[in-house]
Structure formats: structure tokens, C-alpha cells
């Protein structure tokens, strides 16, 4: 039987959060004698009540969930071909459970010739054979379900692959598919040479128009040449997109992420005399007519029609959610300005996405950012976001340099604290929990179409996304435990012998350990339902407070390169002593150490999660 003192200690430390915990505790208390029973019961009730008022505030499963992005090609290879696959993911679901994530969001797994590694889909109803079969996927769903992990799929509605049957038929003027893409004649220049319809440039550089001899016309591709844009002004295309969403939601996925959603529509050419208008020049120095940044994308991005389309897609999600009595979440991804970004939450008669991606931390922060920039980026999103909607936070993805490389390795824990303890949804790109660094992929092995399109063996590195997509580092074995192949599709990053899950799991202090501590903390009411306030205590130290009733936490991160003493009483109602709940790997502090609110010394890069003692 558990000694009374231990029970009291546990109650005061764990106040945790989980009802289950208290149920267990009450079971234990029941076994004690009458006097202790009465005393302990009173203690539990008073301790718990103060902190758990309104705890039953209704929150749907996704509203404070942790999403973990798996770049499917690079997570785990089960069959030794050097390419990650579905059975590989299935075999590592326990790991996701272990680190405390709720949802696995998979980068594209549909059939694709892989010019843009799955973001060029040739068949939306089939699994890429290299990744497995539909049975493998169903098995993944079942196992995930058993572990209470949800699966979300990436879905690319803007364009298909040029190897899609739809596109092949359309290029042959098949009656049904004729208008599924954007076809244009172009025009003849003064020398009688055929020219593209206008000056539009693709995101991956070069003209957004490519000529097809069989159709004797140009097709539009806002991304790579192998990614023809679908025609969303054709209702048949829209219906087909809705069918795809239904198909996967009915199969049991918990949601879908609609990528590049703000590219769905181009200007209506009928409003411009039947010809797509040229885009104006940005005048940015150092850019040529083939560079995406050369033009102001006023006719190819963020067109008004997209918000109604999103609303129509949302109706599909809602219909299926109601039918299955569980919310299927719609996530949208749009690289745009903040005012457009928050429109994806819905407005007026248009319903929006559950989770419109917030790219603020990805786009607005870099190596030069200081505490004030962090505060500004976070608060800006919270300011523009509709008050009642949930925020979401991510600091990395498969398109952007890793945290350890974009900032520095010493700041990995600080940024995990930020993403995991801000209010709302947290999204972790695989590997950020162990602080993976960008791999080095030489020009000769470069695969990313955005890098290849530079035709520049030196400067490709500035835009290449391969370095953030190198294989996941499981252990110090061959290929970091990712694959038994002789050669993996991208090389494993240098340093995997030290930087890997196995090492960090057995270490006393590691990013992995910090991450686990954070996912555990997140379950507490202060982080689930609590309020938020932030301060740049100076240009190096960013801090934020989360509190729920009398349970108060301060997260403080020194992102500067020097030592600082800060005073946390700058926050309203923060005083006295605080106890360390989590600390960055290089911090000299550990769990349950005490610090003074009015005098806290922080070394460079030190980040702490502190809890007020009352
Ligand atoms: C999204 C993806 C990116 C891809 C692009 C084109 O932006 O994040 O990786 O290249 O769509 O499909
Ligand atoms: Mg494989």
C-alpha cells in the first residue's frame, strides 16, 4: 500500500490533468483506514477543485492535438529499396506513441512519377507502388487506430502529374477531359514563332506554360512542368476533387491537408478580353524573367474564388464527420500574407478550414531573429486570427531548413517549447524532436525539382529542399537505421552516428527527453485551455505565460548568445519561487530545481519551463 505522504506528494506534483490518474488515486485511498480516507479525500477535493474548475470545457479531439509530419519517403524503409514506405511507417507507430504525438500527417503517398516526390499525383485513388499497397495502408490505419493515433493525408488539388490519365486524355482532346486543365494557344511573335500566352512564371522558375505538340497548345503549370494545373472553373473537376476527399475520409483517415490551396484559381480571362493578363514586375534587384520573384503574383494566387471553393470542400468534411459522428479535419496550406492566411478560417457565409496552416514561424523567423521578432511573429498571428478559432504552430516542414540549421542546434529545445506550449495545435516536422540538422546533398545527387530547375551547380543549395528531406535517423547502424539498402534515395545526413533516436533515448538529457517532457506537460489544463501572455524581456529573452485558474507557467528562452539576468515579475501575478518543469539540454538546471521570479540568470541558449509555486 502506498504511504500517505507519497500520495500527498503525488497529488501535489502530478496534478495532472488526467481524470484517470485521480481515479487510480481514489482506488488507493479507498484501501486506507477511515481517518486517512476522510482527510485525504478533503485534500484531494480542495487541491483538485481549484485547479480543475471548468476542466470539462468542451474541446474536440483536434483542437490541442500534436500533429507529426512524416515525410513518407524518408521515415522508414521496410523493404530495403532505399525508399521509405507505408509498412515502414506502420512499424514505427509505437515511436509516435512514445513521444506523445496524437496525429501522423503523411506527405503524399498517392501514385506519382515522383518528379516532385508525390506532390505530382498521377492517380489519387491508388497508393504509390514503391510505398506499398492499399492493404498496407489499411493495415496502417488499423494499427494506428489501435494505438489511438490518427492519420491525416496530404492532398494536392491544384495540379496533377503530367502522367495522370486525365492529363493524357485532356492533351488528346478527349471529349470528357478536354477542359480539365488550362489550355491556351499562345501567340505568334514578329518572327512568326510561337510564344507562351503571357509572362507567368512557375514557382519552380521558368515559364508557367509548356507546349504540347499533340494538342498544339500550351498548358499552365504553376509549379513544375510535370505538374499541370487543374481547371477549377470546370464543375466536373470540382466534383472529382470532392469525390477524392470522400473516398479517403470514408476509408478512415482523420483528415486531409490541402496543399497550395491559394493557387487553385487564376484570374478569369473573360474579364480581360479573353487573354490571361501579364503579371506586373516586382522590380526586385538581381532577378530575371525566369525567377518566380520577378513578378507580382496578382493573377495567379489568392484569387477571390478560392474562399468559396474551400467552403465547398469543408462541406464535404462536415457531411462525413456528421455521418461518422467524429470530426474529420480539413487543413489548408497557403503561402500568403497574413490577412489572406486567416481568411482560411472562414468568414461570413463561407466556412473555412479547421486548421489553416500558420507559416509565421516558418517564414518570418531566421538566424537573425531575436526575442522581439519571436514575440511579434507569435502575437501577430494571434491578433489576426479570429478570436474563437484555434491557433496552430509549426516551425519546420519538408520545404524549409531545419531548426538546428536555420537557427542553431542549441536552440532546438527552445523552439520545441514554443511550438508545443503556445495555445492551440502543435505541428512537428519529423526529426525536429531530436534536433536533426540539414543533410548535405551535392548537385550530382540533387533530386528536388526546385533545385534542379536552377541549372546552377553552385547556387542550387539556396533553394534545394533535399537537405531537410534526408532519411530519418533512428540509430547509429547502417543508413542510420532507416534502410538496409546499399544506397538510400537521398544520403543520410552526416553525424547520424551521434544524432539519432537510440542515443537520445538512452541519454539522461537529450532533445528527445525534453520533447517527451513537453508533450506530457501539454496535457495540463494551463496548456490545453489556459490563457497566454508574452513579453520580450530584452532583445534576447522571450518569455510567455500560460495559466489556468491558479496554475501558472512561464516559459522563458534566451535566444541570444550572451548571459542575461531577467526579472519574471514583469508578468502580472508572477512572483516568489518557480519550479523547473523542463530545461534545454545544455541548461544546468533540471526538473524540480527552484528559481526566483525576480532574479533569474540565464546562459546563452538556455530555455526553461517554469511553474509558479503557491
Ligand atoms: C506544396 C508542398 C511542396 C510542393 C508544392 C507543389 O507547397 O509543400 O513541397 O512542392 O506544394 O505541389
Ligand atoms: Mg521501401
Automatic annotation (TrEMBL):
It catalyses: Hydrolysis of terminal, non-reducing (1->4)-linked alpha-D-glucose residues with release of alpha-D-glucose. It is an enzyme of class 3 (hydrolase). This is alpha-glucosidase. Residues 69-469 form the Glycosyl hydrolase family 13 catalytic domain. Its EC number is 3.2.1.20. It comes from the Eukaryota. Pfam families: Alpha-amylase (PF00128). The gene is LOC113516889. SMART domains: Aamy. InterPro entries: GH (IPR017853), GH13_cat_dom (IPR006047), Glyco_hydro_b (IPR013780), O16G_dom_2 (IPR045857).
